[in-house]
Specification:
The protein is an alpha/beta fold and 277 residues long. A 5-stranded parallel β-sheet has the order 7-6-8-9-12. Strand 3, helix 1 and strand 4 form a beta-alpha-beta unit. Helix 1 crosses helix 9, helix 5 crosses helix 6 and helix 5 packs across helix 9. The two termini are 33 Å apart. The structure holds nicotinamide-adenine-dinucleotide (NAD). The site of nicotinamide-adenine-dinucleotide (NAD) has 24 residues, from helix 9.
């Protein structure tokens, strides 16, 4: 990626320019989460943003985490707060999301941002579905009347993905673990987004010829020779024979998630600075 001039990314903060600031909050020492957090902060720094990680131990209490979030909410130099998921089981993720200042909620998970998205208002939108939409629109700019099928209905990927596609005037079918006849529903999709976390779930014969296939799934599968492979939900070798366009795993949706996190951080910084002018 070309190096951008940091001056282009500065926001004018009560008269003195500064770089947009992002904090990623990591609770515990999950190996995969550590890698994701490092790549987010590294990319922020490459782009001339200020990036930092706030670490809490695995046994941190919910009260500890809420206190850290309150401190970040109060900091003028931090525009974006991302809570790396999953959180340990003893912490209520919804309560934690609700504690993040909606103006700094760069993962778009606060109920206010989710509500704005569903109303079609300007919102901070969850990064992964935003990145998926960008990928889809790079292939097909007008989604009016297209049939889009989303597999998965989580708050972080499936539901906002469906809302974004609906805003683009697609006809959206949302499916989940209890959906009956899922393969035949998928076969009708002009656009198929899978966000499940079950390696190889989507077979080649689930895909309509020339469909756009976006694979969000990221599952670590142990290799017989040791180590692990990161696999998507889609059986890539089968699907690539049928689809018009398809994302690989890894290096498909993942980099777009990070790009959209950077975009959301800059958007949040500009909006906060504008309110102070
Ligand atoms: P989740 O566990 O919260 O939700 C999974 C969804 O899949 C649920 O709605 C469930 O009903 C549905 N589901 C489960 N089994 C199913 C089946 N057999 N058939 C149809 N639907 C089924 O997961 P999530 O947080 O939405 O993440 C989904 C996947 O996307 C995971 O693999 C996650 O690691 C990955 N992910 C990747 C990125 C990225 O940037 N690449 C970002 C977020 C999530």
């Amino acid at each position: 990626m070309p190096k951008l001039s940091s001056t282009r990314l500065q926001v004018n903060w009560t008269g003195s320019p500064r770089a947009p600031g992002l904090t990623v909050v990591l609770v515990g020492d999950d190996q995969a989460s550590q890698i994701y957090v490092q790549s987010k902060v590294r990319m922020a720094e490459r782009l001339g943003l200020h990036g930092e990680v706030e670490r809490l131990p695995d046994d941190a209490s919910e009260a500890d985490l809420l206190a850290r979030i309150a401190a970040l909410n109060a900091r003028d130099d931090i525009d974006g707060i991302l809570i790396q998921l999953p959180l340990p089981a003893h912490i209520d993720a919804l309560r934690v999301m609700a504690a993040v200042d909606p103006a700094k909620d760069v993962d778009g998970l606060h109920a206010l941002n989710a509500g704005r998205l569903f109303h079609g208002d300007d919102a901070l939108v969850p990064c992964t579905p935003l990145g998926c939409l960008r990928l889809i629109k790079s292939i097909r700019s007008d989604l009016t009347g297209a049939h889009a099928v989303v597999i998965g209905s989580s708050n972080i990927v499936g539901k906002p993905m469906a809302a974004l596609l609906l805003q683009e005037q697609a006809t959206v079918t949302q499916t989940h673990i209890h959906t009956r006849g899922i393969s035949s529903i998928c076969r009708q999709a002009d656009i198929l987004v899978s966000a499940v976390g079950k390696a190889g779930l989507v077979r080649g014969d689930w895909i309509k010829p020339q469909a756009i296939v976006i694979d969000v799934g990221t599952t670590r599968v142990e290799k017989p020779e040791g180590g692990y492979a990161v696999c998507g939900d889609v059986s890539f070798d089968e699907a690539v024979q049928v689809a018009g366009a398809i994302t690989p795993v890894p290096r498909g949706v993942g980099p777009m998630t990070i790009a959209c996190l950077m975009e959301n951080t800059v958007k949040a910084a500009k909006a906060r600075a504008a309110r102070l002018q």
